[in-house]
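Need residues for this backbone.
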């Protein structure tokens, strides 16, 4: 992935849904006229009239019950439908909100920061944005009202502040009379990776500064000493990875008994990485009366089960875009099918296109075997622009929120299409446009069908060479790692914890 000064021009086309609906309506009316003109017997004609009258009465009653409301303050049509069980579904453009009483006026989308009614010091962190993002616009009214919420949104859509600002408000309301020193955290935010945890921490530290809300980031690969000292001093928000948080709980230096606002960010990835048992254990340590928030790019069955177990029976669900696997539409996806041996030359050509240089390119790298301090330094150099090119493994696939990343190059296609979606999501963030070049080889043909679906959903060009591999979506399984999202039997042996030298540091 790289940064550069020149803008990348991106064009995007979307299907004309109005025209399609019009054609369907014409076809329906044509069929209806045809049926009415058919020759029928008097008896059959009388029966048809009676049936039509009954259908009309039934339709009137149904429409009276499920009345559609067209809002005048939105660009596109907004519908509110009663599902018959007390839940309502609200659809607005590409945002779908489902939940009990979702149609109440108090849960109306927040169009501007002024409409939110939040204190100026809380909104201080939003001064660089014109209006709330779609996920913020829809999630804030529910979260500020204390509702449990499930958020499905693409990477780079403003999810952190979507749950971060309500978390700060929760702390300000509950922590008015708390002592400053030694106070227990009121909020917990779990993340699957160090990079994502640090990213959330950076946002929350900035957002909480004006409000006096303090956060700490807890993750492995670094000394526990400073983290323990900060915990003893007293903090409001705990942000971290499951492994390190569980370690500190077991050591008796971290108590989550007062944590009444709990967030699981990238919940799908957390379970995919094998953290389910640890996550369940940590959630069991939090306050029995809590507000639960789960954010995820996709919604697999395992995450659904976790939500059913730990959330309110009637959580609100906000889906921005698609609940299925979908890429950020602000990213132009260019997929090139080529031979493995041709990748090096093509990579050099792309680098010369985006980073003109005569004697190589100044770059940094990030990978799992690199020490945490080295990874942090590499990220810092990349963010500053000192090294405009980063070479990374999938440890950088999530959690890197760097607005100026304009190009992502996938030298190798990832093990799963989900990881592909996250990789290209390092660009095109916060409404900006981006470009992603992806090399696809014969060895990746098993994922061709899923990739074609992702490209089509985003209105991107599908190469003919990619179509030759077929469009069948196969079982998610890798020759190297086996099946993904594999069900684990209840009597399966428990995992053995592996400790690294860095975990024993004081």
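Answer:
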């Amino acid at each position: 992935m790289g940064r550069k000064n020149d803008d990348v021009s991106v064009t995007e086309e979307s299907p004309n849904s109005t025209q399609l609906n019009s054609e369907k309506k014409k076809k329906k009316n044509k069929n209806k006229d045809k049926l009415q003109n058919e020759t029928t017997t008097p008896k059959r004609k009388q029966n048809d009239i009676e049936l039509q009258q009954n259908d009309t009465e039934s339709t009137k009653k149904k429409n009276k019950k499920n009345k559609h409301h067209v809002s005048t303050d939105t660009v596109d049509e907004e519908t509110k439908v009663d599902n018959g069980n007390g839940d309502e579904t609200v659809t607005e453009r590409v945002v779908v909100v489902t939940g009990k009483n979702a149609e109440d006026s108090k849960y109306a989308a927040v169009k501007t920061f002024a409409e939110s009614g939040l204190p100026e010091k809380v909104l201080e962190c939003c001064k660089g944005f014109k209006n709330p993002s779609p996920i913020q616009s829809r999630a804030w009214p529910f979260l500020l009202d204390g509702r449990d919420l499930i958020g499905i949104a693409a990477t780079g859509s403003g999810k952190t502040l979507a749950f971060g600002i309500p978390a700060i408000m929760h702390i300000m309301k509950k922590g008015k009379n708390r002592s400053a020193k030694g106070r227990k955290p009121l909020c917990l935010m779990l993340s699957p990776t160090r990079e994502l945890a640090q990213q959330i921490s950076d946002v929350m530290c900035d957002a909480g500064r004006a409000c006096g809300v303090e956060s700490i980031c807890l993750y492995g690969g670094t000394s526990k000493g400073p983290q323990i000292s900060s915990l003893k001093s007293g903090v409001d928000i705990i942000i971290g990875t499951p492994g390190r948080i569980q370690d500190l709980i077991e050591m008796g230096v971290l108590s989550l008994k007062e944590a009444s606002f709990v967030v699981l960010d990238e919940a799908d990835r957390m379970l995919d990485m094998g953290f389910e048992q640890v996550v369940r254990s940590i959630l069991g340590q939090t306050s029995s009366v809590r507000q639960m928030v789960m954010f995820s790019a996709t919604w697999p069955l395992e995450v659904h089960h976790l939500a059913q177990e730990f959330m309110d029976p009637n959580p609100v669900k906000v889906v921005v875009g698609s609940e299925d696997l979908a890429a950020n539409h602000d990213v132009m996806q260019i997929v090139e099918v080529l031979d493995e041996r041709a990748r090096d030359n093509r990579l050099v050509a792309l680098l010369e296109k985006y980073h003109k240089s005569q004697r190589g390119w100044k770059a940094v790298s990030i990978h799992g075997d690199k020490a945490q301090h080295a990874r942090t330094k590499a990220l810092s150099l990349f963010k500053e622009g000192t090294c405009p090119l980063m070479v990374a493994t999938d440890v950088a696939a999530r959690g890197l929120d760097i607005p100026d990343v304009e190009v992502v190059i996938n030298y190798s296609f990832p093990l799963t299409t989900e990881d592909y979606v996250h990789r290209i999501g390092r660009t095109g963030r916060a409404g900006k446009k981006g470009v992603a070049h992806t090399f696809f080889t014969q060895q990746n043909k098993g994922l061709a069908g899923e990739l074609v679906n992702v490209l089509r959903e985003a209105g991107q060009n599908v190469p003919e060479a990619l179509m030759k591999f077929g469009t069948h979506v196969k079982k998610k399984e890798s020759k190297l790692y086996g099946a993904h999202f594999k069900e684990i039997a209840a009597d399966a042996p428990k995992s053995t914890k592996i400790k690294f030298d860095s975990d024993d540091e004081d």
